[in-house]
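Run log, item B.
One chain of 318 residues. Sequence copied directly from the ordering sheet:
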Amino acid sequence: MAMQFTKATKSQAKARIALSGPAGSGKTYTALLLATALAQRVALIDTEHGSASKYADEFAFDTLLLDEFNPNNYVAAIQAAEQAGYDVLVIDSASHEWSGKGGCLELSEKFAAKRGGNTWAGWADVTPLHNKFIEAVHSADLHVITTFRSKMDYIQTQDKNGKTVVKKVGLNPITRDGTEYEYDIVGEIDLDHNLVISKSRCKALADQVITKPGRDLAETIKHWLSDGAPTLTRPTPAAPRQEMQPAATGDAVDEFFGAPPERIIADWLASIEGCASLAELERVGAAMKGLEVSAQEHAELARAYVRRREALKGRAER
């Protein structure tokens, strides 16, 4: 098939916003404030035992409670929100998709057990599920605002009077490394409710530190999203979908999808992609030495290894 380049044009778009922070930083409140300022019909996926509903006296939104966090449940919920015609979806939070009950970490252990304890091979079955969740976020025809919990730590610092105090701070978001950078706007909220923009495709927000972000922030985002050529209107579905059913997890996954075939190269590629540190990547590389593969497969593995190494080096330098 012939490939052809075309002139790039800016089109009106849907928001993809990620907010991370420790408990008590105001992630849910900020997400709802942005959501209700961006549009009228707001849906929220609640993984926090209904805690978002405590703000129902301030914001108008509908909720869907999740208590089992297989990535497919998130995908089904995103599709349900899109099908119902909501304008904005808040995912509060996506950290459970990674580390919650039935999430990626738990699934990887179960799959690894079926592969004789090979944790790297176990990720060959989990990575496609996580990628499916990310793709659902990207492709949904509505604004998506996602919150992530942050790993916690304590530091010694000084208050305004110069007195040494111990302060709780949030570190990296709890999700797969790099997931937060799949979004157009990424911000970390601290316990003083300062939103630090760490990534933004919206120039007006680049490197901003916003104390107690409000509707002014939403208006800036709204203006940026609407600046461009109109996009196609979402078509009305011809028929309603069946009621959403929870996705299968654990031992039922094989029955639901069919037993996974032996995919040696795919397993190693997934193992490379699943590495969270350079040390882990080196261990995978050492384990691959002597692997009997074709020249084409060897080149594919080598390219994946180099890409992952460069990505991990880049994160270490940030």
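Observations after the first pass:
- The chain has two domains: 16-226, 262-317.
- Strands lie at 16-21, 42-46, 62-65, 88-92, 143-158, 164-173, 185-189, 194-200, 209-211.
Flagged for discussion on Thursday.
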